[in-house]
Amino acid sequence: MNKTHSRAPFTYLSFVSIISVLGGAGCTSFKPAPEQELKYRIPATELLPVENTRYLKDIHPIFSNRCVVCHACVDAPCQLHLDSYPGVRRGATSSRMGTNIFESSPTRDKDARTTTEWRSKGFFPVINEISPDPKDPIDHLKNSILYQLIEQGFEHNQSGFGLDELNDHRAEKNTCPQTPLHTKKFIENHPAAGMPYGLPALDPLSFETLRNWIAEGAPGPTTEEAYRLTEPSNPDILNEWETFFNETLKSRLTARFIYEHAFMAHIHFEGTPDDEFFELVRSRTPFPETIDEIVTPRPYDSPGTSKKGRPISVYYRFKKVTQTLVRKTHILWELGPSQLLFLKMLFIETLWNPEGDLNLTDPGYHSTNPFEYFQQIPAEIRYRFMIENSRLIVNSMIRGPVCSGRIATNAIRDHFWVFFLDPAADVTVREPTIGLYEWAPLGSKFPWDLPAASKNYNQAMRHYKKEGFSLADIWKGEGHNPNAILTVLRHETSATVHYGPQGGLPGTVWVLNFSNFERIYYNLVVDFKPWGSEIHKIATWNSMSSHRAEAEERFISLLPKKYRSQVRSQWTHGLGGIFENHSKKKYSDGIPAKIPVDPESPFESLLSQLLETMPSPILGNSPMLATFEKTSDELPAHISTIEDWEKALSALSQKKNILFAQFLPNILFIRLENQPYTFISNRSYAFNNIVTLGPLAYEPEKDTVATFRGLFGDRPELFIDLSLERADSFIKDLLLIHTQNDWIHFKETYGIRRNNSIFWQTLDWFHSWAHQNSPLEAGVFDVSEYDIN
Asked: How crowded is the C-beta side of 313, counted as CA atoms within 13 Å?
């Protein structure tokens, strides 16, 4: 699948840290006292710069392979982004986005266009910008924070370096020295702070290449290279799509709706290179002019006015992605001729207004309620687009706009499935004003303000669905669309979304309707500001918790009434159950159900019946090594073949009350006989509806493990390279883990620790496998939390 393209492709295998930290709260600046002149360590050889070092050819692959694994997205240490040359030039800052009590300024890559603007936002350079002699290579090196940290890592982080030093350094892990002088002093006090942080040093050739490039003044791509970087391989495809989006008022309203639901996506067009992706953006200029992107804090914000006070014309354009792709933010949306035809039929060829679409009006940007400003588009059309592309939208909810955070992800369970009401059965589609009443402005979304199942909703249910929902009311994906069932796996600080029913028996199940789906999406994605105040974030969390409970209760409403409390209590009990199980009832009170279930296991019984109604293409071929239907949890007597190994993993996925699960990392990658496998640890919580009490709700004895053939998840926390000869002892030793000390011994025996010399080559192998087997989904894994438990 590898191809030659104009930009440095992902096949260079992209990644880890140049000012990396192990994640967590905001950075603090380091100010040594008193300041004094320091001697800089310049290698004795004092190699002169090699002429014609090229950023795209020589430097970008090193950053992509060794630095981007920590330095990308809004959670990058010191906000240093090394996934593109503009990120290198923008530099770092001592603050972390969104760690303030009050709202701060957004510092996304697009929130400033020049280095000067970034300096005004508090970002400082990591390459030399103060050299009195721009041609002096030694001056460039000694005035580069980046070089000092790489040099320190090259000297210190040799094979087998001490991991205890990292533990000692944790208290300083968020420190961001702001000048070369500060950096020198900081390194003297913290020798383990070199880069890549807490990982094996760069190889000599990579170190020398970076040193030479920095000594040259760290030049970027040439004008010609920069142009080729942004040039699409097939402009005709973009022209066809952009014409569709911008032709008429109806087209522009369609484009605005799609843009607000896909602005986070990396769009790939069928028939173009595997590593070519685009973002859908708002521009002041039409095709084929150069894109002049309209950047606003949120996608529904007004684009502003011209100098003459007139509204700016908005054109919906496709902007090429030029940064290294990181898997934790890679939200794929593949488009082709069939999708264009579908969107034309769904939006353009359908009459929106019974009196004629000539009466359509531009809603402007006066409202922040999507149920209001999109109300000219029939609710069924809007909902149909959302469910037909549900993984795109749920991925946006799950993967962004924040990159990580334990508190944020506590609003969802570790393992749940998502279904959708069929549009014909959804009363919020039949009565679109329900969405208007159920919407509340962000900022007042506290438990006492949150819209419950409104009177309008209950009245519509009594009118349209007085006998309750049936299995036939669950959307079946038109018999072929895999978006009909999604699996969400939470990995403590992150989560991932997958097609089909994956991972065995889920912890909970959602059934979304149009209003519920749209409210969750706008709350978590469109309305959410990572740079917002703590009040804003708590309000978002509270709203999400309520919306999640509503979706879960819609599934419970399929059960006969006498079993509903039992299932509610299974899902939410303890302190959180006192509140939620009372409040949840409002979503299903008065809604009957006729589906007979097994009294011994009503949840599993209902779920089995629901899956039986699903067409086989929807269920797909699961990489899960245990099916939803229970199989034997008996382990093979001895593992001597791949088949034995996979039977053992399947049995582990079926076992309950396994003590080792609580000690495993959230995501464990194993390579056995050149085949990757993934262990996902599912944490069990008594409740997840009280924002700060997650640790109190943890029930470690109920943790389970899901095992997969292939690679699942974005943030692997441990690698194991296992031979078939050791597979038997691996499983037996795994079952003997009962304490943290047992786990540490097991990790020392089988795991590849942070200081192991084969760490990078192992990571490279997993990246190569992912790219070869799923090139459109592939991206750089995040290892900022690798081997820290």
From this structure: 10
Q: Taking all residues of the chain, what is their mean pLDDT, rounded to a whole number? A: 84
Query: φ and ψ at 479, to 5 degrees?
Result: 85, -5
Show the tokens assigned to 691. 């924002």
Determine the pLDDT at residue 65.
93
- Using DSSP, state whether 28 is helix, strand or coil: strand
What CA–CA distance (Å, rounded) separates 331 from 714? 12
pLDDT per residue over 222-253, tens digit each? 888 888 889 999 999 999 999 999 999 999 99
Report the topology of domain 626-752: Nonspecific Lipid-transfer Protein; Chain A (3.30.1050)
Give the single-character DSSP code of 171: G
471 by Cβ neighbours in 10 Å (0-12 / 13-18 / 19+) ranks as middle
**Nearest CA among 557, 394, 399, 604 for reference residue 484:** 394
Looking at residue 154, the DSSP 8-state letter turns out to be: H
Residues 486 and 510 sit within 8 Å (Cβ to Cβ): no
Instruction: Kindly provide the b/e burial profile for residues 659-674, where b requires at least 16 CB atoms within 10 angstroms of the residue's own CB.
Output: ebbbbbbbbbbbbbee
pLDDT score of 657 more than 90: no
Tell how strand 415-420 and strand 486-490 pair up.
antiparallel
Closest CA to 714 of 396, 487, 496, 408: 496
CB 610 within 8 A of CB 471: yes
Assign 3-class secondary structure to 585-637. HHHCCCCCCCCCCCCCCHHHHHHHHHHHCCCHHHHCCCCECCCCCCCCCCCCC
What DSSP string runs through 435-479?
HHHH---TTS-STTTS--S-HHHHHHHHHH-TT---GGGB--GGG
Predicted confidence band of residue 85 (pLDDT cuts 50, 70, 90): very high
Contacts of 732 (CB under 8 A, 6+ apart): none
pTM recorded for the entire structure: 0.89
* Residue written as token pair 């923008």: 90
Q: What is the pLDDT of residue 716?
A: 94
Helices (H) and strands (E) in the chain, counts: 30, 15
Beta bridge partners of 474: 421
Which SS3 state, helix, strand or coil, does residue 510 take?
strand
Burial class (CB in 10 A: 0-12, 13-18, 19+), 318: buried
In the sheet that 486-490 helps form, which strands lie side by side, from edge to edge?
495-499, 486-490, 415-420, 508-512
- H or E element in which residue 156 lies: helix 145-156
Helix (H, G, I), strand (E, B) or coil at 549: helix
Q: Which amino acid is at 466?
A: K
Structure tokens at 706: 């899901």
Nearest Cα to Cα of residue 749 among 575, 741, 783? 741
Q: Using alpha carbons, list the distances in angstroms from residue 177 to 92, 344, 734.
A: 9, 53, 42
The sign one gets for the Cα dihedral 406, 107, 386, 237 is negative
* Closest of 652, 777, 784, 642 to residue 722, by C-alpha: 642
10, pLDDT greater than 90: no
How far apart, in whole angstroms, are the C-alpha atoms of residue 295 and residue 314?
12
Q: What is the DSSP letter of 92?
A: B
Give the tokens for residue 694: 């997650």
C-alpha 402, offset from chain centre: 8
Domain with CATH 3.30.1050 in the chain: 626-752
Distance CA 401, CA 244 (A): 28
Alpha carbon separation from 585 to 550, 559, 579, 718, 747 (Å, rounded): 9, 13, 11, 42, 45
Residue 648 is inside which H or E element, if any?
A: helix 642-654
